[in-house]
Amino acid sequence: MAKEGKLAISVNWDVAKKLGKEKFLKQHSHLSDRHIKELTEMFDKKFGKPAKEEK
Amino acid sequence: MAVNQIICNVGGGNTGIPDCAFTMANVLKVFLVPNNFVLTAEQLASKELTLAALQAAASADLPSARIYPTPEIVGVTNNSEDVVTQTLGYGVPVVVRDGMYNIQFQYTDGGNCLSNALRKFNKTNRRVLFIDANGVLVGTKVGETIMGIPLQVFYARPFGFNDGANVANFSFQLTFSPNYINEDIGFIQLGLGDVMAIAGLQNINLKFVSRTAGVIVVQAVTGCSKENLFEEFGTELADVANFVAKNLNGNIITITSVAEAANSSGFTVTLDTTYTDYSTGQLLLNLAAPSVLAGNDVPGYEGVQLTVPAA
Fold first, then answer.
1. CA–CA distance, B202 with B69 (Å, rounded to integer)
2. Which residues of A fall within a CB distance of 8 Å from B268?
């Protein structure tokens, strides 16, 4: 999977989609605020804003 | 061929001297190759194709299919057996058989670390290809192909001590039958610089930093020098495709993300803890196959599996 965004972080978007935005971000709560902001923007860009949780 | 018919070479061989003859020069490199490794007629059709085949095999994902180049050879000691003869009753010496080649090759690059890597081949069954000082690859000819020379013995010796006048001596010994590089010799001219540039893979050890549930932080350090690769390959390695996580049963655990962990000069690997094969117990973490790493601009490396402690 190609890296995206300004920080060196690479996401498995299939898993991210399965988890949904809330769980996905929660799973990354250990990362820095900059990473979380970046991940949020990446997620929104990928799946649209507001993101829909998938059950 | 008829029953009980033997093949006698009654004619010998013509002995005219050609304008251009091949004489093997001193060996500068040896490739340890699998028994079934073949340079096919298609691969031997040009230098470029042969080099490409060697380069691909030197970084093959499957270790058993890989060819392993040695460091540059800096000296040779010929301990070959003499021709074995028997002196008959009336004093006539007759040749029983050719003596076995037994050659010791010295190298200096790589030191103890590489020496220990070569010593792992001591009880394995491999063949060899030679590269001489003119860039000629020498093996044994099988039809229109070249295969490795079968060995009786490969033995990488324990290093010899530096005695104040001589450097530490790293060497390995090859023993093989003469026919493979005499009557059955197979060779092809390559560019010396090109073939000497074919290097073996280096190990990357994943060094454990921390784990909290599904979050594992590791450093990537080279196997020999323990150099942290974060500065050189931080951005390239921070890719979910570069890491493989498994439970102790060998089942793959999905990785959600991989991020640079600048504070620890490592990588934060976040696992999907909702995945059925995820476990809070010990896990196995490794890098992806060499071809995947090379595809992500980390060429020439292979990961060594890390056992991650339980959360």
1. 12
2. 30-31
Of A34-38, B93-97, B203-207, where does mean pLDDT reach its minimum?
A: A34-38
Encoded tokens for B292: 């995947």
Which residues between 1 and 40 in chain A have a beta carbon less than 8 angstroms from any beta carbon of chain B? 1-3, 7-12, 15-16, 19, 23-24, 27-28, 30-31, 35, 39
User: What is residue A30's predicted lDDT score, i.e. its pLDDT?
Assistant: 87
Chain B: nearest CA to A3, how far in angstroms? Answer: 6
Average pLDDT over residues B125-149: 97
* Inter-chain touch B260–A9, beta carbons under 8 Å: yes
What are the structure tokens assigned to B242, written together? 């570069």
Q: What is the DSSP string of B117-177?
A: HHHTTTTS--EEEEEETTSEEEEEEETTEEEPEE-SEEEEPPPBPP-SSS--BEEEEEEE-
Q: In 3D, which of A37, A12, A30 has the Cα closest to residue B257?
A: A12
Tell me phi and psi for residue B72, to 5 degrees: -65, 135
% pLDDT > 90, chain B = 86
pLDDT of residue A6: 56
Q: Residue range A7-29: average pLDDT?
A: 90
Mean per-residue pLDDT, B70-98: 97
What's the one-letter identity of residue A32?
S
CA nearest B129: which of B31, B241, B272, B243? B31
pLDDT digits (tens, 9 = 90+) for B217-271: 999 999 888 999 999 999 999 999 999 999 999 999 999 999 999 889 999 999 9
In the numeric block, which tokens belong to residue B297? 């601009």
Phi, psi of B29 (to 5 degrees): -155, 150
Contact present, B182 and B279 (Cβ < 8 Å): no
**Both tokens assigned to B212:** 């909290």
The span from the CA of B182 to the CA of B179, in Å, is 5
Residue of B nearest to A16 (CA): B256
Asked whether B49 and B42 are in contact (CB, 8 A), the reply is: yes
Please state, rounded to an integer, the average pLDDT across all residues of chain B: 94
A5: tokens are: 């965004």
